[in-house]
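Q: Here's a chain of 43 amino acids. Please give me its 3D structure as tokens.
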Amino acid sequence: MLLLDSNTISYYFRGDPLVVPRLQALRPADLGVPVIVEYELRY
């Protein structure tokens, strides 16, 4: 399992060429977002 931080998620949505392929290569079940990160991204 890979837990994502807010920076990694931001890089993904910006289309970072290093982050996007790495995350897309993983199964969704292998990714996690901590509650505090979800909160940071919402507010």
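Q: Can you summarize the key feature?
A: The longest strand covers residues 2-3.
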